[in-house]
């Protein structure tokens, strides 16, 4: 059998977890009859994309993100356009896409999934031309992602501490939306554009989303008073938001959003500053990714 060349791109800061021993762990558990392995560590934001592009243009067939959704986004954006295969060893703070793909959070089990080389195609989305694979958002979640980027505490604890601090001062905004030709006007706490069901950490904003259905879900979280936030949190943690009075969910392929002022957006949890007009589209089957056999 011809071996596949596989590159593991390791983000040393993601999830706030130490990763020096990861190459040795992978060496022990990887199926060396199937793969020739190489390893790279990222040194700065954007480095994973550079390393992935270089590897895809050489003779690497599989490129594995060892990190969270931000690392996956950088690598998957290159891998999908260059027709290669993405693998994931989850080491992020939220690990939204890995959880949606049922990839185990345990590194050894995730390596065993890579050994099976079961490849599935999933959709991507684009937001003003940038790819996302898990979730993009505008409003409160974009505010959190911008604050989290400069935060020292990563992991779930980092998100919760920040969320509680920021929610007290956050004001809902007014949005004009067009989803597959139908116009809507809404005041919202946030607009989350879902390819998968969850942000990460099993916080499910869009329980009915499917990664390969050719659709995105626009999740409009209504302006919520502070005393209703525990209910919203309960509904998200128990996959009930599709039946909630606090969230409206509309599926679509092409989505335009106009907001009152330029501000942050997030793309797979990474913040970007953008203008008032946001154009979103689904790219069906854009990414080949290794998943667990299901
Ligand atoms: N050596 C480095 N030093 C600082 N930042 C880095 C380095 N390598 C990569 N990065 C950046 O780290 C950021 C966070 O990575 P990632 O999103 O994978 O982890 P996370 O935010 O902890 O997890 P999640 O997205 O699952 O919540 C990304 O924006 C990435 O570009």
TrEMBL record:
Keywords: ATP-binding, Kinase, Lipid biosynthesis, Lipid metabolism, Magnesium, Metal-binding, Nucleotide-binding, Phospholipid biosynthesis, Phospholipid metabolism, Transferase. GO terms for biological process: phospholipid biosynthetic process. The keyword Glycoprotein does not apply. Its cofactor is Mg(2+). It comes from the Bacteria. Coiled coil: none annotated. InterPro entries: ATP-NAD_kinase_N (IPR017438), Diacylglycerol/lipid_kinase (IPR005218), Diacylglycerol_kinase_cat_dom (IPR001206), Lipid_Phosphate_FormReg (IPR050187), NAD/diacylglycerol_kinase_sf (IPR016064), YegS/DAGK_C (IPR045540). GO terms for cellular component: plasma membrane. SUPFAM superfamilies: NAD kinase/diacylglycerol kinase-like (SSF111331). Residues 1-131 form the DAGKc domain. It holds the Pfam family DAGK_cat. One of its GO terms (molecular function) is ATP binding. The keyword Repeat does not apply. PANTHER family: LIPID KINASE YEGS (PTHR12358:SF106), SPHINGOSINE KINASE (PTHR12358). This is Lipid kinase, YegS/Rv2252/BmrU family. The lineage of its organism: Bacteria, Pseudomonadati, Bacteroidota, Sphingobacteriia, Sphingobacteriales.
